[in-house]
Amino acid sequence: MKITRRTALRGLGTAMALPFLEAMMPSRAFGATTSSTATKAMIGPRRTAWIYVPNGIVMQNWTPAEVGSSYELTPILQPLASFKEKMLVITGLECEKANPNGDGGGDHARAMSAYLTGCQPRKTGGANIKVGMSVDQAIVERVGHLTKFPSLELGIEEGKQVGSCDSGYACSYSHNVSWRNENTPVIKDCNPQSVFDRLFGNGDPRESAEAKAKREARRKSVLDFVLEDARQLQGQMGMGDKRKVDEYLASIREIEIRLSKTVMEPPAPPPEGAVRPAEGKPREYPDHARLMCDMLVLAFQGDLTRVATLPFASEGSDQTYPWVEAPVPHHGTSHHMNDPAKLALLTKINTFHIQNFAYLLAKLDSIQEGNGSILDNSMISYGSGNSDGNRHNHDNLPLILLGKGGGTVATGRHLKLETKAPVNNLWLSMMDRMEAHHDKLGDATGSLKIS
Fold first, then answer.
1. 174 and 100: one domain?
2. Per-residue pLDDT for 118 more than 80?
3. CATH number at residue 391
4. Residues 283, 221: Cα–Cα separation, whole Å
């Protein structure tokens, strides 16, 4: 049976996309042909995501000493040992537009807003914000129409969207990494239940909310509304596709159960006219971070989007990390003044973030798709617009790229640039591999060679 990528399982208030199946590939992909169309179909769609961490990194515990394929993993990168062959460590990229350039203080606001845009944010604490379109939204212009959601903006720390937060810079700069255009940030969704409902809703917010209330009243799963549709479709599938659909539905149910058992903060007052009360967010950061990673995986697995951003915290964040024996404010500790005790605490925080990143990668790598995994077909960037948080410098950024981009990225090495280059050069290269070519993005000077 031939199944299109648009096929979905439907039920009351629910539209559940399917994972990438053999039945979705062109029939010639199974024959002797080696056409580019068949090869591309067997690889699966390419996807890209940006994971952002604030306040810089302890660079001496991040940067490998060796270059090329023989490099040794540093203490902070050690949790990624099992992904070393699928990782590209890049040293020498800079975010020059995060520098003051005559605007004085405000490095945190500039770091986050310039990271994906390559543009200098206008220094203002008012509504007249201005920076530039970010790389994720530039990709959306070309490929956003191919999926239910053109892009997915996720987060863990909401932060303020009005007022001034950093030395005269509007809060929008410090709390948003994605920008639809030079004046409009794309606000991240930090509520995993909200994201889950969006991913599997039918597009009608009121109907979806009513359906959710009925499911909760009857103690039903979202899967209960689509099981009949799933059974009918699976009856016409091969054994491999049946297994993939079963695994997909099981992962959705597992996350539903975790959401129901997670301790939530008290919900905020519901907006006027809301159908039902607002949901609270997970109380504990580790639960919250992993649930947001799970949402990103589900979105990629169902091809609901191919573009995503997920900051693990906002710039200037003072989140504490008692779970890894670092019960100290992150931002305050990042001004370490080379104090060994503070550097040790920061290394624990940096490593904890990488551990959460490794959790995301393991999930993506476990899902087979065509000839490889979702991770093999993806480009997942992890980094920060700050290098050393103590000095607020924005050169030699801590940056790694995971995944092979469908075989278009040469991984398993440490690439150290001989001369500084804008980080946007890397973004241009990723855009090309997403078939979303742009001649220019922010301060880019040309594509970075990563193949």
1. yes
2. yes
3. 3.40.720
4. 23
